[in-house]
Here is the input.
Amino acid sequence: MDEIIIATCSLEIGKAADVNTVLVDGRMVLHGGRATSADESGIVAHAEAAATTIFDHSCFVPVESDTARLAMTQNTTQRAHALRGLVGGIVGTLATIGVALFLPKPMALEFLSIVLGGIAFVYFGFVLMDGRVREMLFEFGNITLTLTFAFLGLWIAPYWLAAGYFIHGIWDAIHHLGGVQTKIPRWYIPFCLLYDWLVAGFIIIWWR
Here is the structure.
């Protein structure tokens, strides 16, 4: 797509243009080396532009197309959601670790198992609001698997609990890649993924 540049200044000699399309005072367009001007009567005249054109770059102001402006807005919004999620994931992890370290290990293990189960049911709430049957089946399967790891971690070995958090992080990544299309706030996926994997790493180190 050609870059569109609007200028409200007068034409000056001695500057070379490096743009494909320019509009000067609403009167002249340079496109591919050809200058086109139109008078009020609508008569169009063409003249070949010289190698060094008469445009002064200092007076050109880029104008973004609606598509480019929308893309920039979307990128900014996505970055904001990602940053919010990452910061929330770190804060949530620190809070969870703080509580776990404060409690005796058996109680901390119960606490971490309950948290994992709670995380699974957050998706349950999202999919109920979504309402699509396909996504419900996927989310119910994930809830069952996550709760299984939570109970195995509580009854058999904490490493099962760490595996549950890690696998749930993979489930978050699948949502991010669009494999499961449950409608979820954009910030929640990076938040939950980071939180899951950091807590999983903490459990492995903590229970040694």
